[in-house]
Design brief:
Length: 644
């Protein structure tokens, strides 16, 4: 597992440079630019309304409360401040307030009344628009994010389907699942952070800063120190946050892999009473995951707390400075200015916090985006050559010419050459690991030979359109895989457009109706995940019906090694007969009856063809074929030989 995990962490060929990963995720927003613009516009309006609410404190103080105070000749707040500041000389030098002149007083009262009405009206507008803007902004951004999520998932699924078989063999399923589910959703989260948190916060903070400058540019200049400080903190923590986040994502893949193994091996686990063992192993993995998660959390929360502390310190410092300036009558500050400055500054607190949180969150999401793009950038199956041709049926036959192949360093097939005429059956026999399955995988062009060539009617497979090749070939594997659906759906899998009559004919020829018709729901019976509700023989017959319905020119048939009861065996054998007739067949054979029926037999040993001929010829020749037959010298009547 550790080896595979290292691989999970390593860059796949063609992986994006890490820094670009986030930008590429942001690229998913492009098709929804209009929606993003609406959402940002609403966010800006929402921010403006919040500031307006904060700013209202200035007209309340400067236009309503203070003039009102003057009108009733109460001591002015500036007097209070002077008293508080202990500036008694200033007070003494002030001329005594003149007794209020009745005309001025009436003017003042009208002014206050009008000011009050304006403030109330503005407050009403702000209060009613805030929830509407909030609703619009959240709805627009969620709508956009939801659509992007679907885009990403669709893209990932398409890529998983397009990736070559070799990729799927080389990667653990847990790692792939974790990349498609967790990493994709974390990377998508980064989009949320950018468009629902970061960008609105930048706009709102920008608006706030402009307003602070408008109220008192001097105070605002002092407050601006905060910005660079915050970014220093985020940058200092950046690398560590990213690294711990990457390690956490990899651990997620390990945990997912464990679950995949438990689910796919559940029968073996139960049969060997290994539940406690598996549970303990799973617990160990989750504990490791927990430790890594906590390490990532520590980095993130520490950075965020530091940002918050700085923010608070600056806010308190500004208030103290502002009060002192007001007391000394410097910078032309009014009490309303200071109060509005404090209120607006307090309003920027949340967006500034959002900004810091989103920056840290974006760093946290970067490794997920990288892992996602490693998957998305892995090269898909090789494209068809521009001059690739389509094949219809097989006219002359299939020829392997000096084919060699290896998965890694060790050669698996060496200089394999033989020919199968159209309509002939070739049986491939040989011990386990001799390369039989690999040979058929090359025919399907899951892989290309390292050297040599496979030709159909004289055309190299590499010059045949992949789609048309696979349309002409059907595969029946040893352990046929059925999808979770009905029997009918499974039969029609290779040709969903087949008519009911065609489907039933195929089912009949493969003896599926023998058991399907006895089931209460008939062909609409659900087979369960992987066909679990059918027996081995039944699954095989459904798989044969599926291949029959496709009516392929070439058939690859990996005969089951597991013994079936004799009745089931007879049905399967009949079904096989129906399938073999009139096609070019490659059968990985285990039963003597199948081998005898073959026109040619290819004996593979360690990737090399050691014998080639008919049954009679090979028996005469001796060698491995004869040895394999002799090993089974006394077959039970009615049963077949197991040749490996
Ligand atoms: P057979 O079908 O005769 O049992 P295979 O074609 O499955 O043999 O395997 C031939 C050899 O190739 C074996 O040594 C096996 O370990 C190796 N092999 C098969 N599949 C892979 C793979 N995906 N990656 C690496 N090696 C593989």
């Amino acid at each position: 597992m550790s080896g595979a995990s290292a691989q999970g962490g390593g860059a796949a060929p063609g992986a994006a440079p890490p820094r670009a990963a986030l930008w590429r995720i942001f690229g998913y927003a492009r098709p929804h630019a209009a929606l993003v613009a609406v959402s940002l516009g609403l966010s800006l309006a929402f921010g403006a309304a919040l500031y307006a609410r904060a700013y209202l404190v200035k007209p309340i103080l400067d236009d309503v409360l203070l003039p009102q105070g003057a009108a009733v000749a109460a001591p002015q707040p500036s007097d209070w401040l002077r008293l508080l500041g202990g500036d008694s000389t200033a007070r003494r030098e002030q001329p005594a307030p003149a007794p209020p002149d009745p005309r001025r007083r009436a003017d003042l009262e009208r002014h206050v009344r009008e000011g009050f009405a304006r403030v109330v009206l503005a407050a009403a507008v702000v209060i009613f628009s805030l929830p509407l803007l909030q609703f619009g902004r959240v709805y627009a951004s969620e709508h956009f994010l939801g659509r992007v999520y679907i885009d990403i998932q669709r893209h990932v699924c398409a890529r998983l389907l397009a990736l070559p078989l070799r990729f799927h063999h080389d990667h653990r399923r847990g790692d792939l699942l974790s990349r498609t589910l967790r990493d994709a959703s974390s990377a998508h989260g980064a989009l949320g952070l950018l468009f629902a948190d970061f960008a609105p916060a930048v706009l709102t903070v920008g608006l706030g800063v402009a307003l602070l400058f408008a109220i008192s540019w001097q105070l605002a200049l002092v407050a601006l120190w905060l910005g660079p400080l915050l970014f220093t903190v985020v940058a200092l923590f950046g690398t560590r946050i990213r690294r711990s986040a990457r390690r956490r994502q990899e651990k997620y893949a390990d945990v997912t892999q464990r679950l995949v193994e438990i689910l796919s091996g559940i029968k073996v686990i139960k049969a060997f009473r290994a539940e406690p063992l598996e549970e303990a192993a799973f617990r160990r993995e989750t504990r490791r995951l927990f430790r890594r998660t906590m390490s990532a959390v520590r980095q993130r929360v520490f950075a965020r707390s530091l940002v918050e502390m700085l923010n608070n310190a600056v806010a308190i410092g500004l208030l103290i400075l502002g009060s002192l300036l007001l007391l000394r009558g410097r910078w032309g500050l009014t009490l309303g200015d200071l109060a509005a400055f404090a209120a607006v500054l307090a309003t920027t607190y949340k967006p500034v916090k959002d900004l810091a949180k989103a920056s840290v969150g974006l760093l946290d999401a970067q490794p997920a985006a990288e892992r996602l793009f490693e998957l998305l950038d892995s090269p898909a199956e090789i494209e068809d050559a521009p001059d690739a041709v389509a094949i219809e049926r097989v006219a002359t036959g299939v020829r392997l010419r000096d084919v060699s192949f290896s998965y890694g360093r060790e050669p698996v097939l060496r200089h394999v050459s033989f020919e199968v005429k159209a309509g002939q059956v070739v049986a491939i026999v040989g011990p386990t690991g001799s390369g039989k399955t690999t040979l058929t995988d090359l025919l399907l062009r899951f892989y290309d030979p390292v050297s040599g060539a496979i030709e159909i009617d004289g055309v190299d497979l590499r010059r045949i359109q992949r789609g048309s090749l696979r349309r002409q070939i059907a595969v029946v594997t040893q352990e046929p895989f059925l999808f979770d659906g009905t029997i009918r759906e499974n039969i029609q899998y290779g040709r969903p457009e087949a008519t009911e009559a065609e489907t039933l004919a195929a089912a009949q020829a493969a003896h599926v109706d023998e058991f399907a018709l006895r089931l209460p729901a008939g062909y609409d019976t659900q087979v369960g995940a992987g066909g679990a509700r059918l027996s081995g023989g039944q699954r095989q017959r459904v798989a044969i019906a599926r291949a029959l319905l496709v009516d392929p020119a070439i058939l690859i048939f990996d005969e089951a090694t597991s013994a079936l009861d004799s009745k089931s065996e007879r049905y399967v054998q009949d079904a096989i007969e129906a399938l073999l007739g009139g096609r070019t067949v490659f059968v990985i054979a285990h039963r003597l009856s199948t081998i005898r029926r073959a026109d040619r037999i290819v004996v593979l040993e360690n990737g090399v063809v050691t014998q080639l001929g008919t049954h009679a010829e090979l028996v005469r020749e001796g060698g491995l074929y004869r040895e394999l037959l002799d090993l089974q010298a006394a077959p039970r009547p009615g049963s077949d030989l197991r040749l490996n």
